[in-house]
């Protein structure tokens, strides 16, 4: 018996990186996992990798109609939702001088607005005692150049988790944030034209001397999703190799 046997989970941004690794682990622990993302080909590949325990629904969390369609699909299965990992987010670089209206609106539209409505629209489906996990970032705690808007969206996410944990406690629903440090994902590589040098620079800053692996973050997601974290809510679980701790 897995930690999540018979449960139903949703992972947004579940076709690559941390989202895909988390979907794989949740399914391995016995959950039926719905995954969503904007690229259908990647979603199809993810379902093939996970197997019959996965269902893909293409869509954009910034599009409320897409969210409605996603939750209608989950509702049709008739078992509600026990785990929601609101993972989908985007990052791009831009200093204060460089930030444009489009840059700001895209990051806040997906990372903050999209996350809010992902959770709000899930409320009628969330079973009592469910676990909601938001994807945070260690950038909330530092002032890395070029990541001001991205960090601000993740600060909003961290604040949401605290407030929602308080608002949903009456239903026994726990809300926590998983907070990865630099993690070796396609999204990290896409931030720069020289991924190898960027990875080396980030690894040198991490006390453990390397980037995290998506599977390591996924292990923390499973912990927060399961009854092993039954007395944990409103928290932020850092998976950062000691970056923001030492």
List keywords for this structure.
alpha/beta
What can you tell me about this protein's structure?
The protein has 8 helices and 7 strands; from the N terminus they run E-H-E-H-E-H-E-H-E-H-E-H-H-H-E. The protein has 246 residues and is of the alpha/beta class. It has one domain (8-238): 3-Layer(aba) Sandwich (Rossmann fold), CATH 3.40.50.720. It has a 7-stranded parallel beta sheet, with helices on both faces. Helix 1 (17-28) packs across helix 8 (214-225), helix 3 (64-77) packs parallel to helix 4 (101-122) and helix 4 runs parallel beside helix 5 (148-167). The protein starts with 7 loop residues before the first strand and ends in a 7-residue tail after the last strand.
Secondary-structure topology with pairs:
Elements: E1 8-12, H1 17-28, E2 32-37, H2 40-50, E3 54-58, H3 64-77, E4 81-86, H4 101-122, E5 126-135, H5 148-167, E6 174-180, H6 186-189, H7 195-205, H8 214-225, E7 236-239
Parallel strand pairs: 1-2, 1-4, 2-3, 4-5, 5-6, 6-7
Helix pairs in contact: 1-8, 3-4, 4-5
The CATH superfamily label reads NAD(P)-binding Rossmann-like Domain
Low-confidence segments = none
User: What is the number of beta strands?
Assistant: 7
Q: How many H/I helices?
A: 8
Instruction: Let me know the average pLDDT.
Output: 97
SSE string, helices as H and strands as E = EHEHEHEHEHEHHHE
Helix percentage range = 40-55%
Strand content: 15-25%
- What is the annotated CATH architecture? 3-Layer(aba) Sandwich
The Rg value, from CA coordinates, equals: 17 Å
Shape: globular
Count of spatially separate domains? 1
Largest sheet: 7 strands, parallel
CATH class: Alpha Beta
Which strand order spans the largest sheet, edge to edge or round the barrel? 3-2-1-4-5-6-7
Tell me the structural class: alpha/beta
